[in-house]
Known about the structure:
By secondary structure, this protein is α/β, with parallel strands linked by helices. Helix content is 44%, strand content 19%. It contains 9 helices and 10 strands. The strands form 3 sheets. The protein has a 5-stranded parallel beta sheet, sandwiched between helices. It has a 3-stranded mixed beta sheet with strand order 8-9-10. The two termini are 38 Å apart.
Amino acid sequence: MYRLAAIRMQLVLPDSPLRRILILEPSGSGKSTVGKRIGRILGIPTIHLDIHYWNPNWVETPKDEWPGKVKKLIASETWVMDGNYTSTLKMRADAADTLIFLDMTRRASYFRIFVRFLRNRGRTRNDVAEGCPEKIDLDFVKWIWNYPRTRKPVIFRFFEKMKLNKNVYILRNQKEVEKFLADQTDQVIATSIMNAVDRSYAVNVEDLDVKVKDGIVTLSGKLPTHAACEAALECAYNTYGVRDVKDRLHIE
């Protein structure tokens, strides 16, 4: 199990390639949960479009007002945004640097929405607008069933065009989701260590190599003094999310 909750970054990393992330899926695939987890890992805000689209009692935002709302939301410097809403997809994708599609099976989607309904029946989830209690209706069930035939091919063609200048990920099961999240966690840890080392002024970061796998850090390189090695190791051990540190440092 990956230790994602241990990462407590306060600001997005300046050199992280993931600063504006858009998540799409057939409903019930877990986009809101994945979005929250990415937001916690990278320290950036999560935007659930359902909160902004729906009004109390499941009343839709007027079509002429919705693009303006979305335009304000994507103007922020960093975000993780989940939501389908085809009418504003291109606008959001153009603003994003990363596109994620959760390509889960119908069975997985149906299982999630029914569990979600039982868990939240009569209540409003925190990823939808206030006053919109959990519900399942026939139209929603049909939409999920038809998604692989009607919507997914369109999304895949769109992603194919966007991958020329965007980070594009298609995650097909929970194992791939966990692998993706673990990779982002490791990247955050590695960059945090390098930033800490750079701020310490004890080590030239160009002399240091940092590799992270599942929270285990390997430091290697040739440093000028024993004190520099100790400083680099201390920066690694003091970084949130680090499970262990392997010392492969050498003194010149």
